[in-house]
Amino acid sequence: MKFSCKKEQLVHAVQIVQKAVSSKPQMPILSGIYLNAFDNTLELQATDYELGISCKIDAQIDEPGAIVLSGRYFQEVVRRLPGEMVEIVTSREDHTLKITSNTAQFNLLSLPAAEFPVLYPLDGNTTFKIRDNVFRELIKKTVFACSQDEARPVFTGGLLEVTNSDVMMVATNTHRLAIKKEYLDEFNGEIKIIIPSKILMELARIMVAEVPSDVIVNCTRNQISFTFDNVYIISRLIEGQFPDYKRVIPEAFTTEIILNTDAFSSAVERVSLISRSGDYNVIRLSFNEKSVMITSNNPDIGKAEESVDITLSGKELDIAFNAKYVTDILKNIDSEKIYFSLNTPLSPASIRPCDDDTYNYIITPVRTS
Amino acid sequence: MKFSCKKEQLVHAVQIVQKAVSSKPQMPILSGIYLNAFDNTLELQATDYELGISCKIDAQIDEPGAIVLSGRYFQEVVRRLPGEMVEIVTSREDHTLKITSNTAQFNLLSLPAAEFPVLYPLDGNTTFKIRDNVFRELIKKTVFACSQDEARPVFTGGLLEVTNSDVMMVATNTHRLAIKKEYLDEFNGEIKIIIPSKILMELARIMVAEVPSDVIVNCTRNQISFTFDNVYIISRLIEGQFPDYKRVIPEAFTTEIILNTDAFSSAVERVSLISRSGDYNVIRLSFNEKSVMITSNNPDIGKAEESVDITLSGKELDIAFNAKYVTDILKNIDSEKIYFSLNTPLSPASIRPCDDDTYNYIITPVRTS
């Protein structure tokens, strides 16, 4: 194998596939990055069996071939190379790869390419196209609501539900639920799959092109692939039945409050300084006609209270929440004002932006004595 | 106690004294910040017995008094207060302190002020004045060379040596030694004290006023104090005999090399990517008439080599060093070029900036087979 390519492109490609390199690999080969040089193209691949990423860049190939290098060292070395171009050639004497750039030369030990589980194109029947910025928005507005508890796998992923041109992402840990809706240009049919939250977070990090571009999504019963620009990503899906989230959303509310997002968010953050070292991080909200009094109390530290102006229609109400569940959603709302909708101190409430009916968040109160 | 003050000033004062709040206090009271309100002044203090810091700010005192608050919570609370002013008043009913700013109100549990070991002004015979930026430069150019090994205390501190108008800071871990010299405006006499590196680093962080200002230094046999602006810092000194560092500095060299600082630094950083996971992080330098070849080798990873242009007078030489000891000094040299001066592969070398004879660094080579 012998090729040369631009350093910046190689650095970028290594950064992308690096996210699929396992830090605790099941097998040594999975700690590596697979390089395949062919047809004026260098392809890099990495996989930990859950997530696989491929990235292709232009290269001048003098001799085609494939090899695997330690992901950790390859990334650190290419990042720091001094030149604009990089030349990479396998040594005939030993199992090393010679990397040359300007005055610097590295000989890195290689692993046998034949042992690497090369990624394959997913060949599912179901395929659709979505803009990368739209998909990123679906992820960012919901993924934080996923559970971290591996004992109940369906809650550790986000539900992607497509019904004709409607696409929704739903995430819940059973105490709170986030739903974001967007639209597809053209799709007929239904999809309902659960994508691991770890994969969703990586996708949101990788899909950051300056110009919005299309992502081709392809899925089978237990796998999903994403193709965009020069990148191909394949991931397992979470199997199991996602709960019927529509049943969780209250149909009507007896109290409707309008709040300034920033003022409410800052006040909740401040008051929760006192509660957050407690087991449940409980803040109390006392809504009256003109304002909400936010309070917390921790016998070891002290107490806090702060009042924020509101517009209320309906009944006045006292209710308590896990402060983190409240601040999590407020950080994700871009609108100046929110609706906070309530029924009783024990029934689920809804928080949503005033000017965007495609986003909703359901939060269960904490029962306090 | 009842007073009000500007929030920004209070935040700044808390940040300064916070550095002396122990994270693992010997006694609960040492986890606190002492507040003392008197004569239009609020004084904050914290100490872990090794280091004590006091900071005074202007305040409107309605009722003088003193109290101690949990350092951790007080800092987090004041940092996030919403208003420009803060009002603080002790509650008569319980042991709490009420902090009010704009719409927010906190009641924090307090600790009894009588238990706090209040700082005293150090009354040593030896006192001198130094510019804060000069003192910071002495620290920054040397403190990194201190040892972390508590078993040999004298090497965990920096030697401050004043001889009339010459002031030097010297630090060593016995494998490398950094010396920086500056000048005092007016002082007659001699001082030789060892200041703990932890304290030196805190001082460099605190002494960052925009306009250079004077620091009054006062010392006794085992304590030192620094007074500047509204801040007073008192610290223990390290007792013991600092080694005679002058004996370590070679009087002459048989090889004198001139190198570009950045080019050499980047090359050493790159080559050491391969060596740094090894036990001794060894890089080899082969100096010939025109260039130095920097190499490293790790049987588990591979090898690296890079050549940098040099100007050499004297004998050609092969020598090996701990790469970290080389990059540490290069990061601290602001000059475009350095002198690298050598005798034999086993004798100490010197690295120093070409245009600044007040800074010197002695480094012991690694013996390789």
Could you characterize the architecture of this molecule?
2 copies of one chain form a homodimer. Chain A has 369 residues and is an alpha+beta fold. Chain A folds into 3 domains: 2-115, Roll (DNA Polymerase III, Chain A, domain 2), CATH 3.10.150; 126-247, DNA Polymerase III, subunit A, domain 2 (DNA Polymerase III, Chain A, domain 2, Roll), CATH 3.10.150.10; 249-363, DNA Polymerase III, Chain A, domain 2, CATH 3.10.150. In chain A, 18% of the residues lie in helices and 45% in strands. Chain A has 6 helices and 25 strands. Chain A has helices spanning 7-18, 71-80, 132-140, 197-206, 261-275, 323-331; strands at residues 2-6, 32-38, 41-47, 51-58, 60-63, 65-70, 85-90, 96-101, 104-111, 126-131, 157-163, 166-172, 176-183, 190-196, 214-219, 223-228, 231-236, 255-260, 282-287, 291-298, 302-314, 317-322, 337-342, 349-353, 359-363. Chain A has a 13-stranded antiparallel beta sheet. In chain A, a hairpin with a 3-residue loop joins strand 19 (282-287) and strand 20 (291-298). Chain A is elongated, with a radius of gyration of 25 Å. Strand 21 (302-314) of chain A pairs antiparallel with strand 9 (104-111) of chain B, so a sheet runs across the interface.
